[in-house]
Design brief:
Elements (H helix, E strand, L loop, with lengths): L1 H5 L7 H8 L4 H12 L13 H17 L6 H12 L5 H25 L2 H13 L2
Helix pairs in contact: 2-3
Protein name: HTH myb-type domain-containing protein
Organism: Rhizophagus clarus
């Protein structure tokens, strides 16, 4: 990319130009850049998320979903996390934090429902109705 800038022609979407050289689509190259190659990621790539960062993600996404039914703008959240904590996290890492929590909560809810003995519950409810 620096080579293009030095020649005075900076392409609006350099990933399209790279896709002519590398046998991958512009979208694949772009995603690889944002999740693996961006130099800002090197500083925090191996540093685990703090509890504060995780809570921030849970809160931000929860607030967003309560107001919108659209896709979550991970790019926006990525910049918010960088502003708030000074760490540039990959979009995939941020998504992984959110979706792993969602899976864990769904698994816990399923386990609770499976642990309830529905036959006993229904019997108790109907027996209670007889007493009314």
């Amino acid at each position: 990319m620096a080579q293009w800038a030095s020649h005075g022609k900076l392409n609006r979407n350099p990933f399209v130009e790279l896709s002519k050289i590398i046998p991958h689509s512009p979208k694949q190259i772009c995603q690889h850049w944002w999740n693996k190659l961006d130099p800002r990621l090197i500083l925090v790539n191996k540093v685990p998320f703090t509890n504060e960062e995780k809570e921030y993600i849970y809160g931000w996404v929860g607030d967003y979903l309560s107001l919108n039914k659209e896709n979550i703008p991970w790019k926006t959240l990525q910049s918010k996390i960088e502003e708030e904590f000074g760490r540039f996290r990959s979009r995939n890492d941020i998504k992984n934090i959110w979706y792993s929590r969602e899976r864990r909560l769904a698994r816990q809810a399923k386990n609770i429902l499976e642990s309830l003995d529905l036959d006993v519950f229904v019997t108790e409810v109907f027996n209670g109705m007889d007493q009314l």
